[in-house]
Design goal:
Elements (H helix, E strand, L loop, with lengths): L1 E5 L6 E5 L5 E3 L9 H5 L2 H12 L12 E2 L8 E5 L3 H7 L8 E5 L4 E2 L5 E3 L6 E2 L2 E7 L15 E8 L2 E2 H5 L15 E2 L4 E3 L10 E6 L2 E7 L7 H8 L10 E3 L21 E6 L3 E9 L2
Parallel strand pairs: 5-17, 7-13, 8-19
Antiparallel strand pairs: 1-2, 1-4, 1-14, 2-3, 5-6, 9-12, 10-11, 10-17, 11-14, 15-16, 15-18, 18-19
InterPro entries: FAH (IPR051121), Fumarylacetoacetase-like_C (IPR011234), Fumarylacetoacetase_C_sf (IPR036663)
Keywords: Hydrolase, Metal-binding
GO molecular function: hydrolase activity; isomerase activity; metal ion binding
Length: 284
């Protein structure tokens, strides 16, 4: 299935993209795409419910806003320098173990919402990433079992303010958690629809110029390694998001670096998962 959420910010409703291309409103299924949904085997329950109710569900208006494809999760865990070519472009040594940091859950927004350049920002950057959504409580997960804990996958743009991240001391988090810095969606594609999460093309363009163009096979640590590894250090709850790193082509890697300006349009996508588009606007 392809799950999505639609409606005004903070008042989204759940929806499903059917194989025939219809976007339907599944509000009457009950509940949102949140921790409880995944904890109670929501995807399977919803699939069963649809067999009887899909023909009677209303269509979602074509001009509806896409919200983030999940209701705010308990955490968004990110992985730094996880693509070999991206590590090379930043001049960093490829990590021996995954580099972990967090994005504030308040950075979550819809896939086509404006990205707000933060107050006093001069170095807002882009990062197309594969997001992994956890389907059940995970702690000390064995490597061979790791993909059994994945509910599905989505597109995430890990926007980053490089001066806040790298020049202000401390951890990376302060450059990663600004409002609108985690557009997620448009769809959560359930794991049964993605045969190999480490064989997906992903790309990003700014103002029509393709700057990132890669494949998830360039990851240093693949999806199952990340799920298992992270679960050794914290409990992953249903609905939690792991953003698995970005390929080469970020603004920081250019000489001279390139950063977003108001009016810039960022378009990105991942094979089989959908596309996003954001316009950069100034903080007001």
């Amino acid at each position: 299935m392809k799950l999505f959420r639609f409606g005004p910010d903070g008042h989204e409703h759940p929806g499903v993209l059917l194989p025939d291309g219809r976007h339907i409103d599944v509000t009457h299924f009950g509940g949102d795409f949140d921790e409880t949904f995944f904890e109670t085997d929501g995807p399977a329950r919803l699939a069963h419910w649809l067999t009887a109710h899909a023909p009677h569900c209303p269509d979602v208006p074509a001009d509806s806003r896409f919200g983030p494809c999940l209701k705010r999760p308990s955490k968004i865990i990110c992985v730094g320098l996880n693509y070999a070519k991206h590590a090379a472009e930043t001049g960093a040594t490829p990590p021996a173990e995954p580099i972990l940091f967090f994005k504030a859950t308040t950075s979550l927004c819809g896939p086509n919402d404006n990205v707000v350049i933060p107050k006093r920002s001069e170095k807002t950057d882009w990062e197309v990433e594969l997001a992994v959504v956890i389907g059940k409580r995970a702690s000390y997960v064995a490597l061979d079992d790791a993909l059994d804990y994945v509910a599905g996958y989505a597109v995430l743009n890990d926007y980053s303010e490089r001066a806040f991240q790298l020049e202000r001391g401390g951890q990376w988090d302060k450059g990663k958690g600004c409002d609108t810095f985690a557009p997620l969606g448009p769809y959560l594609v359930t794991a049964d629809q993605v045969s190999n999460p480490n064989a997906l093309n992903l790309w990003l363009s700014v103002n029509g110029e393709k700057l990132q163009d890669s494949n998830t096979d360039d990851m240093i640590f693949d999806v199952r390694t990340l799920v298992s590894y992270i679960s050794q250090f914290m409990t992953l709850l249903p609905g939690d998001v792991i953003s698995t790193g970005t390929p080469s082509g970020v603004g920081l890697g250019f000489k001279p670096p390139r950063y977003l300006k108001p009016g810039d349009v960022v378009t990105l996508g991942i094979e089989g998962l959908g596309e996003q588009q954001q316009m950069a606007v100034s903080y007001e």
